[in-house]
TrEMBL record:
Keywords: Hydrolase, Membrane, Transmembrane, Transmembrane helix. Gene3D superfamilies: Zn-dependent exopeptidases (3.40.630.40). The chain crosses the membrane at residues 20-39. This is N-acetylmuramoyl-L-alanine amidase. Residues 122-232 form the MurNAc-LAA domain. It holds the Pfam family Amidase_3. The lineage of its organism: Bacteria, Bacillati, Bacillota, Clostridia, Eubacteriales. It comes from Ruminiclostridium cellobioparum subsp. termitidis CT1112. GO terms for molecular function: N-acetylmuramoyl-L-alanine amidase activity.
Length: 254
């Protein structure tokens, strides 16, 4: 037997098998590359789409900050033994109750008779990243004939005036004189909150008719209902629509 011939024959067979293996391997690799390219073309960024979906699901609802004016050693306006700080807190607690019922995310600057400085009110709202700030107050004047209800806003806020109109359209239905909306650029909480902010002057404590309403539980509940209705409309039109609120994001806006 010629050993050299046998070795040469085996070498040729092994070379043929190796060649076939290489061809098959390269073919599978090419098919895999083409498949991956086509899949990427159909869905160029699957991981990005998933991330966007998760971000949408996890996005927090807009936070509404409710600010009952005055408190503690600062009574606000007074009428005998009746203090503004107590009336606005009662109304704000009714607002809180309705916000809970409607599943609207909120934060109360105070829920009891404590003093909170104007600086702290604005700072708390900013730290909480509020999207809407509503400050509740009562009015007073030396002329007891003065009465009514108004909504104050920052005229330098892009949508402040329109938001004030929405809120005033709700609270003017409370049976008090409609004093309309009022630009108040120098009010601290309207200037220093990094979000749209409104300050409501609900009635005059110096007016007997207004005061009687302000101290009535039924009126306070009705007032809270109208304020929350205004909040809902503002959220729907300006806050939940991100395109409409792009301009409201900077501290200079309010």
């Amino acid at each position: 037997m010629d050993v050299n011939k046998i070795i040469d024959k085996l070498s040729r067979k092994l070379s043929q098998r190796s060649l076939i293996f290489i061809i098959v391997f390269l073919s599978l690799a090419i098919i895999g590359i083409i498949g991956a390219y086509l899949a990427k073309k159909e869905n160029p960024n699957p991981s990005g789409s998933l991330s966007t979906s998760l971000e949408t699901v996890q996005e927090k609802p807009p936070l509404v900050v409710i600010d009952p004016g005055h408190g503690g050693w600062d009574p606000g306006a007074m009428a005998g033994d009746i203090n503004e700080k107590d009336i606005v807190l009662d109304i704000s607690i009714e607002i809180e109750r309705l916000l809970i019922e409607k599943n609207i995310d909120y934060y109360m600057i105070r829920t009891e008779d404590i003093y909170v400085s104007l600086e702290d009110r604005a700072q708390i709202a900013n730290e909480k990243k509020g999207r809407l700030f509503i400050s509740i107050h009562n009015n007073s004047f030396t002329d007891s004939a003065q009465s009514g209800i108004l909504t104050a806003y920052n005229p330098y806020s892009p949508n402040g005036k329109d938001m004030a109109k929405i809120m005033q359209s709700k609270i003017k239905e409370l049976g008090m004189k409609n004093r309309d909306i009022m630009p108040r650029p120098n009010l601290y909480v309207l200037r220093h909150t990094e979000m749209p902010a409104l300050l409501l002057e609900i009635g005059f404590m110096s007016n007997k008719k207004d005061l009687k309403l302000l101290t009535a539980g039924d009126f306070q509940k009705k007032c809270a209902k109208q304020v929350v209705s205004g909040i809902e409309d503002i959220l729907d039109k300006y806050i939940l629509d991100s395109k409409a609120t792009d301009a409201e994001g900077s501290p200079a806006a309010d």
